What does this fold into?
Amino acid sequence: MPTVASYIVEVLKLLGLKRIYGIIGTTILDFMDALYDYREDLRLITTRHEQAAVSMADAEYRVTGNLGAVAVHGGPGFLNTALGLGIAFKDRVPLLLISGGVKRRLYGTDAMHEVDQVSIVRPITKYAARLSREEELPSIMTKALRLALSKPRGPVVLEVPEDMWRRPVNAAPSDALRELKIESVKPRREDVEEILSYMVKAEKPAVLVCGEAALPGVESLLSELAWRVGAYVMVTGNARGACDENDPRCMGRVGFGGGSLPADKVLEEADLLLVLGDELDDIATYGYNIIPRGDVVIVTENKGVEARPLYYSKLVYADPYETLKALVEVSRERGLEISKPSWDSEVEGFKSLWRSSIEEALSRRYTGYANPSRFFKRLGEKLPERCVITGGQGVHIVYAYDFIKIRRPRSFLAATRLGAMGYAFPAAIGAKLALPDHEVIAVVGDGDFMMSVGELETIIRENIPVKVVVVNDMSYRVLLLRQKIQRRGRVIGTLLENPSFEALARTFGALGATVSDDGEIDRVIDEMLGSDKPFIVDLRISQEDVPPLNIEASMRIAE
It folds into this structure.
């Protein structure tokens, strides 16, 4: 008969998990002891911070579609997971967090390690429960997993009191996996035909793809639909790669924190915007300052979109990916091949303005610093076909949006909707473990990297050849720029001092290099991509360099 601990481990095995992330502690010592017997099948990745463990599990789902799991000590260890849970919750990423808790007889006595864990994380999880009797475990596991995987997806938490891990469970672990098949909501034929009629009639049709629809194969469907109805495609931060960014119909990312000018202008000028997913939000619209001029049609399974302060011409509750497939099928049946020359000409004007900004950024020269635009353009040109980029939060990530073309979904990860630092490096570790045959590169700012720098020890100990590009401007530059522009140069709290990240990498046992001149760019990129070891690039740039972005709209959201 399984114990509570072995029952949970068996469920994870049945789900197909290969790894579990976390840090040992007294309240999960017995869980770890049970895990020892399964160590050949379920590898424990010990991290240096619980937040990092959650982001590694988060990344596993984002790149493969397979659930990730974390195990942490109750109390302090559990509290360290809050930011990672918040990131996963905001970006609709399912994962299972298993936490220890105080013994049942001590619960409610203000015992050591005791905090009300369930209440603390309830607002940032799909489900959180504390096990009180072992016979409840199968039903709690079923409910937790079903809610994690049901749209809108998200993290779930199971707290197990320290005295319960060895309790016998009179049930088969397979019981917890019953009723886990979740059917997507198929669109009605009449809704598909009405949406298509909107697109055919529109003079300036556009499609916004969100993370909810960014599944493998979506890029070819979007390309075909766009060409058939004369539309242009944009993506949210959680959907990069949903349209091939080399496709002339793909405008790239829209919105605050990395949107391209063509994508923003197409969103604003469209007289019909089809939104596939639930992310026509304050990020995509710069705080609802950029709104489509015409009809807006939303297709999503997330009823939370009703809370948004926008008018929708049509709201369809259906799976956006399935709806896209149906739109393509009907457009084929009708033999649609519609061109809209005036819209094409207008969009070409947006692209021309953007190319001018890109070319100007590439032409800049600095003494003692590298041009980050040139670095990321060359990196994008040299990346192998199989690659994953994880992005931090800050001005630095805009260079990766501007100059690295993402061609497939699940190839670019970021803490988009919470806007949190400290995600990119741990996420790169999880992505690399899940996809060992892919080149995985974290693009981080110096402030972002220092929040998770301890995981350098993790990648050395576990031999995980992640690459990291630290865009080093010695500042929290988003706020530094705002202080200079909007606060008349009243600079406080935004200037930093950093070590040599090359030297730091070598201290941990990784490889490293410093780039402070454009002449070093190609050599260091080749050295990094040619290495099969963990590699850290210290990319030193001027605080005065601003990447191409929609400055006017960005200032509007800042105000």
